Amino acid sequence: RRAHTLTVLFILTCALGYVTLLEETPQDTAYNTKRGIVASILVFLCFGVTQAKDGPFSRPHPAYWRFWLCVSVVYELFLIFILFQTVQDGRQFMKYIDPHLGVPLPERDYGGNCLIYDPGNETDPFHNVWDKLDGFVPAHFFGWYLKTLMIRDWWMCMIISVMFEFLEYSLEHQLPNFSECWWDHWIMDVILCNGLGIYCGMKTLSWLSLKTYKWQGLWNIPTYKGKMKRIVFQFTPYSWVKFEWKPASSLRRWLAVCGIIFVFLLAELNTFYLKFVLWMPPEHYLVLLRLVFFVNVGGVAMREIYDFMDDPKFHKKLGQQAWLVAAITATEFLIVVKYDPYTLTLSLPFYITQCWILGIILVLTWTAWRFFIRDITLRYKEIRRQKQEHKYEKDKCLSNGDGHSPIPDEQNGNKLRERKL
User: Fold this and answer.
1) Read out DSSP for 278-297?
2) CA angle (323, 328, 331) in 5-degree steps
3) Three-state SS for 67?
4) Residue 314 φ/ψ, nearest 5 degrees
5) Residue 46 contacts by C-beta under 8 Å, 6 or more apart in sequence?
6) CA atoms of 123 and 5, how far apart (whole Å)
7) Phi–psi pair at 57, nearest 5 degrees
8) Residue pair 206/139 in contact by the 8 Å Cβ criterion
9) What is the phi/psi pair of residue 241, to 5°?
10) Which of 145, 35, 87, 155 is closest to 335 using CA atoms?
């Protein structure tokens, strides 16, 4: 494998050098810098794809997941670079990626008229509904379909979906993207787009869990139909692991599940805040590429987290992709804090603050009751029950009149023989 890596790197380096020698180097510093950075990234990706550590997934090929691991490293390094720039330089640096970036975003009204049926518009009274049916509707659906395949739990998906809508309500005074109509929040997002995506995802998970995983070599299949079916199934899992999070089984698992939900919500919020602070339009291709990136690395990270929680003796440390996803999410948040601290420090409305304080108190109260008070109460009841049984046995012995336990001699003899053995 190492020899194969060196061979591929040698061929790639020679090819890049050959291309450089064939053409005359242009006297454009910006162009040469971009070209050199891209070539360096390609060499690193080539090295990582062939030499990086394999993850938990092996389909369609382990090299595919090694590629996304290396992309995670490159993306984290890019975020660190942006973090150490000034606000103006960081925004203008985006022009090197796309010349149309680096321009302030126009203000848009996302809330507006919230009437489902607008009688004032005789031409099209349902124009508010049609305006919301844009390209983001299928994006919501496919996004939650893929998130369901990653999380593999209906309750966790629904909690994250509903919690994000509450976050949009709470933060709409900071970002105009979060200002939506009530029916857009709960009917179009939670029920139609998110709910339908979660439902289809759970049906797919059910099919994958019932599927028979018996693989056969491609060239051992006699028919062309069988070969095509085998090629398609190459993009399905090699085997299936059903996620059973069981958050109420122990305090450790409860805190882990809460941490997963928190990181998920933070990554969702980073999507909107990064667009705002780096002046990227919502429909820009970089936004879509970031979502595609998180879909691929998020699935591996969730599997590594579940393996670490389910069998900590075998998986003694958290997987590398999970650590990278956590680092990327934290770095994105730091960029948002540095580039626009004023927006983040806008105080929440008083009633919003009250609702969040009440929710946090309820969660902490339930946690204390479930993992501390309830266990103490059950332990006290068990001790009390054992004392009552002991007292009952003692009273029963005294009622025989000899003051000794009425255990048959045969049982005493068996116990003595066991002790001798």
Assistant:
1) TT--TT-HHHHHHHHHHHHH
2) 125
3) helix
4) -80, -45
5) 8, 9, 12
6) 65
7) -100, 145
8) no
9) -125, 120
10) 87
The dihedral formed by the CA atoms of 96, 98, 102 and 107, expressed in degrees to the nearest 10: -170
Distance CA 416, CA 285 (A): 81
Query: Which of 168-177, 194-203, 405-414 ranks highest by mean pLDDT?
Result: 194-203
Helix (H) or strand (E) holding 3: helix 2-22
Of 31, 35, 44, 4, nearest in space to 17 by CA: 35
Digit-coded pLDDT (tens) for 115-128 = 777 777 767 777 67
Q: At a CB cut-off of 8 Å and minimum separation 6, what does 1 contact?
A: 50, 51
Query: Torsions phi, psi of 336, nearest 5?
Result: -65, -45
Q: 160 Cβ partners below 8 Å, 6+ apart?
A: 147, 151, 261, 264, 265
Q: Which residues contact 391 (CB under 8 A, 6 or more apart)?
A: none
Rounded to the nearest 5 degrees, what angle is found at the Cα of 363, between the Cα atoms of 254 and 319? 30
DSSP state of 96: G
How many angstroms separate the CA atoms of 145 and 198, rounded? 5
Calpha distance 352→196 (Å, rounded): 29
**Where does residue 311 rank: exposed (0-12), middle (13-18), buried (19+ CB within 10 A)?**
exposed
pTM of the predicted model, to two decimals? Answer: 0.82
